[in-house]
C-alpha cells in the first residue's frame, strides 16, 4: 500500500492546467480519470482528477487562489488508525477540519478524518477498505 492516497491543490485555470497535466504526465501513464463540474464542488470551481488504473490520486481545481486549498491525504488500511491520527494531530495543535467518520458523498467505505496543520494545510487520513465483519 502506498502512503499517499491523493493530493490536491488550486490552480489559476483548471482547463489550462488540465491540458498541461494531460500532456506532461502522459509519459508516466498518468491520465485524467474524472472531471467534477462546478455544481458539485465546495468552491464552485472545476476539479480534474489524474491517476493510473482508474484511481485519481492527483487533483487540481480552480476558483481559489493558486496554492490555496492544498490538501494531502495519507492512506491506511485501518479505521482505528484514522481515529488515532485525528486525536494525535489535535493533541499536537492541529485544528479539527472534520472528525473521523464515513464520507458517504465519496462512497460508502470512505472513512476519513481531516485536520488543519499549523500552516492551514488540510491533512487527511483515509481508509477506503471494506471493514471486516466480526465472526
Plain-language structure description:
- The structure is a single chain.
- The protein is of the alpha+beta class and 135 residues long.
- It has two domains: 4-61, Roll (2,3-Dihydroxybiphenyl 1,2-Dioxygenase, domain 1); 71-127, Roll (2,3-Dihydroxybiphenyl 1,2-Dioxygenase, domain 1), CATH 3.10.180.10.
- The protein has helices at 14-24, 79-91, and strands spanning 4-10, 31-36, 47-52, 55-61, 71-76, 95-102, 111-116, 122-127.
- Strands 2-3-4-1-5-8-7-6 form an eight-stranded mixed beta sheet, with helices on one face.
- The longest helix has 13 residues, at 79-91.
- Pfam families: Glyoxalase.
- Residues 3-128 form the VOC domain.
- It comes from Marinobacter iranensis.
- This is VOC family protein.
Provide a short characterization of the protein structure.
The chain is α+β, with helices and mostly antiparallel strands and 135 residues long. Helix content is 18%, strand content 39%.
Keywords:
VOC_core, 39% strand, Glyas_Fos-R_dOase_dom, VOC family protein, alpha+beta, 2,3-Dihydroxybiphenyl 1,2-Dioxygenase, domain 1, 18% helix, 135 residues, 2 domains, Glyas_Bleomycin-R_OHBP_Dase
* Radius of gyration using CA atoms only: 16 Å
CATH top-level class of the largest domain: Alpha Beta
**What fraction, in percent, of the residue positions are helical?**
10-25%
CATH superfamily of the largest domain: 2,3-Dihydroxybiphenyl 1,2-Dioxygenase, domain 1
Question: Which regions have little confidence, pLDDT < 50, spanning 5+ residues?
Answer: none
Strands, count: 8
Assign the structural class, choosing from mainly alpha, mainly beta, alpha/beta, alpha+beta, or little secondary structure: alpha+beta
Q: What percentage of amino acids are in beta strands?
A: 35-45%
Q: Terminal Cα separation, in Å?
A: 26 Å
Write out the strand line-up for the largest beta sheet, numbering strands in chain order. 2-3-4-1-5-8-7-6
Spell the H/E element sequence.
EHEEEEHEEE
* Mean of pLDDT: 89
The total tally of domains equals 2
Output the number of helix runs.
2
What's the architecture of the largest domain in CATH terms? Roll
Amino acid at each position: 500500500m502506498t502512503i499517499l492516497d491523493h493530493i490536491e491543490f488550486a490552480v489559476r485555470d483548471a482547463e489550462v492546467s488540465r491540458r498541461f497535466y494531460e500532456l506532461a504526465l502522459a509519459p508516466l501513464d498518468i491520465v485524467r480519470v474524472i472531471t467534477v463540474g462546478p455544481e458539485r464542488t465546495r468552491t464552485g470551481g472545476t476539479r480534474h482528477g489524474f491517476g493510473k488504473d482508474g484511481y485519481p490520486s492527483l487533483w487540481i481545481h480552480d476558483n481559489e487562489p493558486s496554492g490555496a486549498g492544498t490538501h494531502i491525504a495519507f492512506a491506511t488500511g485501518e479505521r482505528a488508525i484514522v481515529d488515532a491520527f485525528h486525536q494525535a494531530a489535535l493533541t499536537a495543535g492541529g485544528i479539527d477540519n472534520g472528525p473521523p467518520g464515513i464520507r458517504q458523498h465519496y462512497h460508502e467505505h470512505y472513512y476519513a478524518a481531516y485536520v488543519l496543520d499549523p500552516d492551514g494545510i488540510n491533512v487527511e487520513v483515509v481508509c477506503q477498505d471494506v471493514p471486516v465483519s466480526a465472526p
